[in-house]
Design brief:
Layout (H helix, E strand, L loop, with lengths): L29 E3 L8 H7 L10 H17 L4 E6 L2 H12 L5 E6 L2 H12 L3 E6 L8 H10 L5 E7 L11 H10 L5 E5 L18 E5 L10 E6 L1 H6 L12 H6 L13 H17 L1 H25 L3 E3 L11 E6 L4 H13 L1 E5 L14 E5 L6 H17 L8 H14 L1
Parallel strand pairs: 1-11, 3-4, 3-5, 5-6, 6-7
Antiparallel strand pairs: 2-8, 7-8, 9-10, 10-12, 11-12
Helix pairs in contact: 1-9, 2-9, 3-4, 5-6, 10-12, 10-13, 11-12, 12-13
The structure holds pyridoxal-5'-phosphate.
Pyridoxal-5'-phosphate binds next to helix 3.
Cofactor: pyridoxal 5'-phosphate
GO biological process, one term: glycine biosynthetic process, by transamination of glyoxylate
Protein name: Alanine--glyoxylate aminotransferase family protein
Length: 424
């Protein structure tokens, strides 16, 4: 650009005094919201290439290598379909293959995302019974038992549950749910939303007897939003052959078992997302799933320890899920000392320190002043100790700057959790 057309540069003269208190947000920003999560440079770089030929060649070999790794990711030897979709699209993909109009589903909801799946199933013409366990509790199996026992004709075709509900951060015991269904000899298929938990929380599709698992690319899988995944059992494939909600684009069998390359995508492949996925699966393979689960466990415990310390000086600061056994390891939902402290803290962290925290989702309606009392901290995907300790330190500074009452010792408590885990 010729010099005369350049916009005037801001003055760099060092003699100018800062006009405000220093802003400490300059530097690499950190998006600590529960999706999209941090994208590794390796994943971004893998996408930076020319469009490949989709009619043969290297792309076919690369894609052939994805299927076994995707199966291993979910702990299954069965089927997996990839969709060009976000999590809502993955829900509808599962629904379209599972149901016929007039079928019945039992949805177990432990937060906003359980309710969301129920809404998508109902909108497609399926009768939905929702068992709502509220916004801060896991599934109560006694209530599920009651509902399944009352279903004497076995009208319920599918039970759906959210493994980790990203809104409440409740984590459900999927294996125990399957055991209950088996003990009651109820034939319903079990479908699980692992969008938040995949590659963060331990999940074993085949060992736990799950029939359908849904996930999306932009959380623990570390790929930009745009890929949805549906893993399905051979049993689900057989049982749902006649499902009449299925249309050619959403049908899972050609996507999973197609003999022509285009059938996997019902058209053009999402080429660059697939390069990103290949790189992310390499990273997951290099670290190893058990190590990834342990890393998330440790980072989650560091976050919980900080909140416990803050809570000791202000009982209004508290985690949404009281029992650690029922907390997701990828995201933590909290009440931050009441409204509007959570919003003030989120704004401070983003504007003053370069860290974006998650809004409270589904805890209060956006128009309600209470909405400003909740936030979420993500510790999902490409996150390490310095990032999580950094987020907690920034929150600590924000609590002090904004004079939000809180207990002492949060950062030391978080560091102790990290230290303890590395000694184990
Ligand atoms: C993020 C999320 C969704 C929705 O995914 P989108 O990609 O935003 O459509 C659904 N369920 C759970 C558990 C999630 O974490």
């Amino acid at each position: 650009m010729p010099p005369e057309n350049r916009p005037a540069a801001p003055s760099l003269a060092p003699s100018l005094a800062p006009s405000l208190a220093p802003n400490l947000a300059h530097g690499r920003p950190y998006l600590a919201i529960p999706g999209p999560s941090v994208m590794p440079d390796r994943v971004l770089n893998a996408m930076h290439r020319a469009a490949p030929n989709i009619y043969g060649g290297a792309l076919y070999d690369m894609v052939a290598s994805l299927w076994p790794d995707l199966r291993a990711l979910a702990g299954t030897t069965q089927n997996v379909a990839i969709y060009i979709a976000n999590g809502h699209g993955a829900w509808e993909a599962a629904n379209a293959n599972l149901f016929s109009r007039g079928d019945r589903a039992l949805v177990l909801a432990t937060g906003r995302f359980g309710i969301g799946w129920a809404e998508s199933i109902r909108a497609m013409g399926v009768a939905v019974d929702v068992l709502d366990f509220g916004r801060s509790s896991p599934v109560d199996l006694a209530r599920v038992e009651e509902a399944l026992k009352a279903d004497r004709t076995h009208a319920i075709k599918v039970v759906t549950v959210t493994h980790v509900d990203t809104a409440s951060s409740a984590r459900n015991d999927v294996a125990a749910l399957r055991r209950l269904m088996d003990d009651l000899h109820h034939p319903a298929l079990l479908a699980v939303d692992c969008i938040a938990s995949m590659a963060c929380d331990e999940f074993r599709m085949d060992d736990w007897g799950v029939d359908v698992t849904v996930a999306a690319s932009q959380k623990g899988i570390m790929v930009p939003p745009g890929l949805g995944f549906v893993w399905f059992s051979d049993r689900a494939l057989e049982r749902c052959r006649e499902a009449d909600l299925r249309t050619p684009y959403w049908a899972w069998e050609p996507r999973a078992r197609g003999t022509e390359f285009w059938q996997h995508w019902a058209g053009t492949a999402p080429t660059h997302h697939l390069f990103a996925l290949r790189e992310a699966l390499d990273m997951i393979g290099e670290e190893g799933l058990p190590n990834i689960w342990a890393r998330h466990e440790t980072l989650a415990r560091a976050v919980w320890a900080a909140f416990a310390a803050w809570n000791r000086g202000n009982p209004e600061i508290r985690l949404n899920i009281a029992d650690p056994a029922h907390r997701g390891r990828a995201v933590t939902a909290a009440r931050m000392g009441g409204a509007p402290h959570a919003t003030r803290l989120r704004d401070w962290c983003e504007q003053r320190a370069g860290v974006t925290l998650g809004i409270g989702l589904g805890m209060a309606l956006p128009g309600d002043p209470e909405w400003h009392g909740y936030l979420r901290v993500a510790h999902m995907g490409h996150v390490n100790a310095h990032m999580t300790l950094g987020v907690l330190s920034v929150m600590q500074a924000g609590l002090e700057a904004l004079e939000i009452p809180h207990g002492d010792g949060a950062l030391a408590a978080a560091a102790t959790e990290i230290a303890r885990a590395t000694r184990a």
